[in-house]
Specification:
Layout: E1 2-8, E2 12-19, E3 24-29, E4 32-39, E5 59-63, E6 66-68, E7 70-72, E8 84-88, E9 91-97, E10 102-107, E11 110-118, E12 122-127, H1 135-148, H2 155-159
Antiparallel strand pairs: 1-2, 2-3, 3-4, 4-5, 5-6, 7-8, 8-9, 9-10, 10-11, 11-12
């Protein structure tokens, strides 16, 4: 099991946990609702994704105990293919890689936050000024990052098999 503590600039201490034995990623924080994503029992790991699958039928996302559909892209060569989409609370969210070590969280197509994987030193979040980011949105961003990674190596490196997503911690 891997775990990390992130000092979020808006929401304080955030605890991230990824348990490879149960194929689950969990986010907890004093100012955040609990959010978890897991690969359903009986499914096979793809060994390319931290959670072990990008197939929507294999995944279960819970936001404050409520099941929420999650739709990851196929995760092949392009950065856009590694996006993850969630519809929750009347909004469409997308976590999408922008560089090899960064991903942006979009709400209804508008950037509200940026997550950066720091080499061996965890994750840094930057929430867009005036976005009104909520605890649920921050928890979703951290959970998706823990389950699917942050960033993507881009077209050329992915095409030659020289890249992987950055772990969130």
């Amino acid at each position: 099991m891997l775990s990390a503590t992130v000092d979020d600039p808006v929401f304080g201490t955030v605890e991230l946990t990824v348990d490879h034995d149960t194929a689950a990623a969990t986010v907890r924080g004093q100012s955040l609702p609990p959010v978890s994503i897991r690969r359903r029992p009986g499914t096979t790991s793809d060994h390319r994704t931290p959670i072990g699958s990008r197939a929507p039928a294999d995944l279960e996302l819970l936001v404050d105990g409520e099941p929420v559909p999650v739709r990851p892209g196929l995760g092949f060569v392009s950065r856009r293919s590694r996006r993850v989409d969630v519809r929750y609370g009347g909004h469409d969210y997308r976590l999408c890689p922008t560089t090899s070590t960064r991903s942006v969280l979009l709400r209804d197509g508008v950037p509200i936050g940026d997550l950066q994987a720091l080499a061996g030193a965890g994750t840094r979040a930057h929430w867009s000024a005036g976005s009104g980011v909520t605890g649920v949105e921050a928890a979703l961003a951290y959970a998706l990052a823990a389950a699917f990674g942050i960033g993507s190596p881009g077209l050329v490196k992915s095409a030659i098999g020289a890249g992987a997503v950055s772990p969130p911690f």
